[in-house]
Amino acid sequence: GGLESQTITEIYGEYGSGKSQICHQLCVNVQLPPERGGLNGAALYIDTENTFRTERIVQMSRHLGLDPQQVVKNIIYAEAYTSDHQMFLLDNAFEKCAEEKVKLVICISLIVYRNN
Known about the structure:
Largest sheet: 3 strands, parallel
Distance between the termini: 42 Å
Structural class: alpha/beta
Number of helices: 5
Radius of gyration: 14 Å
Number of strands: 3
Order of helices and strands: HEHHEHHE
Strand order of the largest sheet: 2-1-3
Helix content: 25-40%
């Protein structure tokens, strides 16, 4: 049935279990028109693990009959280097979401800082 909209969904699992692949597919699927199960919108992808692969987006786009260049263009990519940088990106994401018609925000791994 897919993911519920306007909620936070946590995906977790072991290394190599397909978490990033699901996120890549969601970045493509969100761009589909509503009659094909999408939201006709863009995606914001905040990456802390350097897992984003444009070549996978292109493959998935072609499989769905979408223009790969347009699909890639509709994914706003940001790499977070520290926990502070990640918070800065997330704090400023809402403004970008409104400007770019973003319907999906993906944050690959939260950086947690503990002061012990």
